[in-house]
Task: inverse folding
C-alpha cells in the first residue's frame, strides 16, 4: 500500500534568521523532568520484564507519575529535609498473562529507585523521598509484540511533531544543562541537578538565564556560593562561544538577593524538596527542549507504552526522521515533520506523513522532495525500530 507522504516547500523565515528566538530546557533534577524520567524508567523496566517472562511487551502506561514537593531547611555546609518529597508512580500495567504473574509494582519501584540513585545524585533515598506505587491493572487483551510481523494498530487519532536541525540557540541551551551536570559538577559538587536554562536570542545577542538549585552541604558560605555562580557563568559562556559567533551573556540564579541572604540553596539539589511539584509532560518535548518558535506536540512522551501509543511513537519517529533528513538530503535548511495517525489503523500507515522543508538557496527542490519521500518511507517500513530503540534505552524522551 502506498503511504500518504507529502513533502512541501515551506515559505517561511528560518528560525536562525528570525529576530527573536526562545528556547528552554528543564534539567534532569527539575520536578517535571524527574517525573518524566521516572515514568520512562518504569515503562522500560516493565517492557524488559514482560519480554523476559512472556516473550511479549504487554499493555501498560505509566505516564501519570506525580511528585508532591516536600519541605526543607537548606543551610551552607548542611541543612536537612523536614518533610520528604512524595512520589506516586501511577498508571496501568498488565499483571497476569496466560497464568504467569508479573510483579509490576516491584519492578516499578526497583526501576524508580535505580533511576533516582543514578540521576538525582544528591538525594538520600532513605530519608529525602517517599516512592509510592499505585498501578492499576491493564488488559492483557491489549498486548502486542514489538518484533512480530503484524504491525500494531494506532491506539488513538493523534499526531507527533519533530524538527531539525537544532539552531545555535537550541544546541547551546541543550548542551549547557547537560555539560553542567556531566562535566562541571564533577569538579564543583555544589551544583545541583535541578537546572533550568532559558535562552533568548535577540538578533545576534544571546542571553542565557540559568536557575540552579545549589547543594548546601558542598558550599561553605556566601562567598563560596558566589564564586560557584561566577564559575558556572564563565563555563556556560565559554561553551556557548564554541557554538556561535554571536554575543553571549549568562546569568545564574538571577533572583538571588545577597543582601537579604536569599539565594537558591537546597539540601538535595532539586526544588522538589521545598515547594515545586512535578508532573509528566509539563516540561521538555522528546527532543529535550521547549521551543515556542517551532511546531510542537503537547503530548507527553515519557511513560507511554512504546508499542502502539501514538503520543510516544510518532513524536520520537518524527524527530528521528527530521534528523536523518538533514543529514542525508542535501539542500535542506530546516525540516518539520508531522505524522498523524488514525485510530485502529496500522502505525506504519499514518493518515498523513508531512514534511515541510525550507530549502537552502539554489537547492533543487524536486530532488529534495524525492529523497525525503524515500527516507520517510524507509522509516515507516521499519516503524517498530522505534519500539526497539525505546526498550533498549537508545532514545531520550525528555
Result:
Amino acid at each position: 500500500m502506498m503511504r500518504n507522504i507529502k513533502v512541501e516547500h515551506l515559505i517561511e523565515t528560518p528560525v536562525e534568521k528570525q529576530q527573536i528566538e526562545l528556547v528552554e530546557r528543564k534539567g534532569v533534577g527539575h520536578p517535571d523532568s524527574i517525573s518524566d524520567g521516572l515514568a520512562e524508567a518504569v515503562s522500560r523496566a516493565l517492557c524488559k520484564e514482560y519480554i523476559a517472562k512472556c516473550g511479549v511487551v504487554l499493555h501498560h502506561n505509566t505516564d501519570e507519575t506525580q511528585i508532591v514537593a516536600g519541605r526543607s531547611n537548606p543551610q551552607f555546609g548542611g541543612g536537612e529535609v523536614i518533610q520528604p518529597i512524595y512520589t506516586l508512580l501511577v498508571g496501568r500495567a498488565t499483571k497476569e498473562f496466560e497464568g504467569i504473574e508479573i510483579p509490576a509494582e516491584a519492578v516499578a519501584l526497583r526501576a524508580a529507585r535505580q533511576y533516582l540513585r543514578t540521576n538525582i545524585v544528591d538525594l538520600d533515598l532513605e530519608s529525602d523521598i517517599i516512592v509510592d506505587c499505585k498501578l492499576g491493572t491493564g488488559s492483557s487483551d491489549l498486548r502486542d509484540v514489538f518484533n512480530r510481523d503484524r504491525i500494531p494498530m494506532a491506539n488513538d487519532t493523534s499526531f507527533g511533531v519533530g524538527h531539525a536541525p537544532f539552531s545555535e540557540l537550541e544546541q547551546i541551551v541543550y548542551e549547557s544543562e547537560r555539560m553542567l551536570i556531566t562535566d562541571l559538577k564533577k569538579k564543583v559538587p555544589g551544583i545541583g541537578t535541578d537546572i533550568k536554562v532559558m535562552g533568548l536570542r535577540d538578533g545576534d545577542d544571546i542571553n542565557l538565564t540559568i536557575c540552579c538549585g545549589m547543594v548546601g552541604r558542598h558550599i561553605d558560605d556566601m562567598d563560596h556560593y558566589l564564586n560557584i555562580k561566577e564559575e558556572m557563568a564563565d563555563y556556560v559562556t565559554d561553551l556557548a562561544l564554541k557554538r556561535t559567533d554571536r554575543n553571549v551573556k549568562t546569568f545564574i540564579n538571577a533572583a538571588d538577593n545577597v543582601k537579604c541572604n536569599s539565594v537558591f540553596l537546597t539540601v538535595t539539589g532539586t526544588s522538589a524538596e521545598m515547594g515545586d511539584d512535578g508532573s509528566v509532560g509539563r516540561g521538555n518535548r522528546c527532543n529535550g527542549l521547549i521551543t515556542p518558535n517551532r511546531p510542537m506536540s503537547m503530548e507527553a512522551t515519557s511513560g507511554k507504552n512504546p508499542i502502539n501509543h501514538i503520543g510516544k511513537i510518532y513524536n520520537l519517529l518524527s524527530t528521528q526522521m527530521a534528523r536523518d533528513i538533514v543529514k542525508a538530503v542535501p539542500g535542506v535548511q530546516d525540516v518539520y515533520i508531522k505524522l498523524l495517525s488514525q485510530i485502529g489503523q496500522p502505525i506504519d500507515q499514518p493518515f498523513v506523513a508531512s514534511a515541510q522543508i525550507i530549502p537552502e538557496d539554489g537547492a533543487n527542490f524536486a530532488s529534495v522532495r524525492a529523497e525525503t519521500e524515500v527516507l520517510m518511507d524507509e522509516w515507516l517500513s521499519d516503524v517498530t525500530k522505534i519500539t526497539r530503540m525505546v526498550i533498549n534505552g537508545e532514545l531520550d524522551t525528555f
